[in-house]
Each structure stands twice: as C-alpha cells, then as structure tokens.
Design goal:
16 helices, Aspartate Aminotransferase, domain 2, four-stranded mixed β-sheet, alpha/beta, 16% strand
Amino acid sequence: MAYSNKIKELYQNQLKGIQDAGLFKQERFIHSSQDAEIEVEFPTGSAPKKVINVCANNYLGLSSHPEVIKAAHEGLDTRGYGMSSVRFICGTQDIHRELENKVSEFLGTEDTILFPSCMDANAGVFEAILTSEDIMISDRLVHASIIDGMRLCAAQHDTFKHSDMAHLEKKLQLHADKRLKVVINDGVYSMDGDTAKLDEMAALCEKYDALLFVDESHSSGFIGKTGRGTHEKCGVMGKIDIITTTFGKALGGASGGCVSGRKEIVEMCRQKARPYLFSNTIAPVVVSGVLRVLDILSQSTERRDKLEVNTEFWRKGLSEAGFVLKDGDTPIVPVMLFNAKLAQDFSKDLFDLGIYAIGFFFPVVPQGAARIRTQISAGHEMHHLEKALDAFIKVGKKYDILGKTKQEIIEMYGN
C-alpha cells in the first residue's frame, strides 16, 4: 500500500494526541562530551548552554576519562574501526575474548559472551536456553528489554509482585511441574532505584530448583563493596545462573553488553542466540575502552566510594527539602511529581537554572507516576550537587510541592 494521505493523517493524529496529552518526548542535542557538565542545545536552534547533568547513566564518571579515551584510540589504531562481520564468521578478535574473560573475572562467573547491547543480550538469552516446556517467572517491574526478550521466547510466562518474596514462592510452587523454572529480575530497578532481594531469591531458587536471572545494567561497576554488582551486595556471588549487563552505563558509557554466568548457558547463547549470530561484533574501539575501565575498577574503589558519598548527600538534601522520593540507596533518586505536564514544566525550569534533568512520564513509567529521575555520578563534585539542590528547591517552591504528600500534589495538579 502506498503511503497515502490517509495513512499520513493517521500518524499525524496519533502524534497530536501524544502532544495534547502532555506525553510528547523531545530530544535535546548535546554539543560536548558526556560529563558532569555538558553543553545542551534546547530549544532546537538555540545556542548551546552549559548545564549540570543529573540524569545520565554515567555513574562512575568514566565516559570522558582520559585513560579510557586513550585506550579507545589505541584500539582504533591497532584493531581498526569495525569488524564488518558477526562473531562466528570473521568478527572475533583476540580482544573480544580478552574482554569476555575479564568480565567473567570481574563478575565472578564461569563464562561470558558479548552482545552489541544489553538489550540484545536480553532479546537473545531466553529463546536460546528455554522451550515451551519451561516457565519464566518475572518481577512485574523488570526492564522493557527483558519483557521484549521474554516475548520472543516460546516458554510460558508468569509474574510476581515487585520484590514480594512470598508471592514469588507461591509462583514457584504453582509451576513445580515445569521442566525448567527461571526467576527473572533487575538487580537495581532503573526507574525507582531500589535493589532486588537477590539473597532471598537465591535461597528460593535453590529450594525450588529454579534458575536465577538478573539484569545488572544499573549496578555493574558501583553496587557492592567492590562494585561487582547487586549479587556482591547481597552476598550471593557465584549463585546467580545468568547475569546480563551493559557497557553503556557505568562501565565506560559507550555501547555493548553481555550474558555472563554458567558455562553451558553461555555456550547455548553462542550457538543459538539470534542477536549474537546476526549482529556485527562490538567495535574494537569500544572493547579497548571497556578493558581499560575494568582495569581502573580492579585497581581501586575510589570512584565507587565517591559515588556513595555523593548519593547520600543528594538523597538527604532532597528529602530534607520536602520532596517525595522513592525509597532506595542507589544513585538513582526519583523525585516524584505524578503529573506529566508538571514533570515537563519542572524540567524546563531546572534547565533555565542550569540543571539538566528530564521528566519521565507514561509510557516510560506507569500512568500517574511521572517524575524527575535524577542520577548521581562520581564525576559530580560537591559544588555541582549543591547548585543542583538549590535549583530543585527553588523550582519546588515555585510549584508549592515542598512538604506536600503524594495525594496533595495529585489534588493540585492531577495525575
């Protein structure tokens, strides 16, 4: 069918509906490298403005680290720009296997396989290891990429209430007859910033003979005493069967991801995971950068420790100012506003004050749960956080939400 005026109008009306509902998402153009301070063009066509960035996944401040950039240059010079191939044909270099070995050592797993992204890892792993005789039991708040991966798999699917271990146990009992059972969750939930109860999950999985899967994208590098992730924090290293994670956040901030865990499961992915078999290999420049990142993290916990201090200051400051926050102890600190338009207006006012923080609203978060998701970095100095906190308080006073409850804010602005 040709792209007729009727079809064009259909999409135009849908886009207008998104705009009218206050749910339209606008991109801002960054004219600098990713860092604690960035230069942002907003609105489109305006001169770039220097602002403090409190909404990036650059948790350890390594996206622009000179040693990482140097390593990337060396990878570019010695291994080229790209592989022009998939891994099993002619797309595997020595540095790809070197990175897989280093990730396994860092995470405390048996083996690792690289993917173009963690979204690809989540898209490929379930289909590669499960059949229609099996059951996937996922937390109801798992990341969208996990949901997409489960949709591609023939295995049956059930859910349990978020972090509700009693409900999970009931589901494990209900599905006791399945060939394989896989409990699926995020290590740190990216929208709320809370941490999975991996110790309790591991015990339940052992009791009911189930596999345990965790996406560590928002924890690898900085959660746990040495930054190994949620499984380190919860004392269950070596007990997680499948870990997926990304190199696009704390571990350098470029791209790429992996499946790490039991040797046989990783090998099944190498043989059957479609995103692995049919996607180009991670570029050598990225691999070289991530290798250097892992070296930096293995030498010292300085950045992880600084991030912990910064996070404590930020959460305490927002809480004492009277904002409604999601409970948690991670660098993800959502400021709850509940109304989509309020979240966008709040974000714009922050930008005018030199603070870059984006409003999140449906469908990124549930209807009526709009927020400003702030994310703290080891790249932030205290003067960055103090200025950002002052700006949040000023804008909070403008909208008269400081000290207000969830219900009071909803009564004022709707949800």
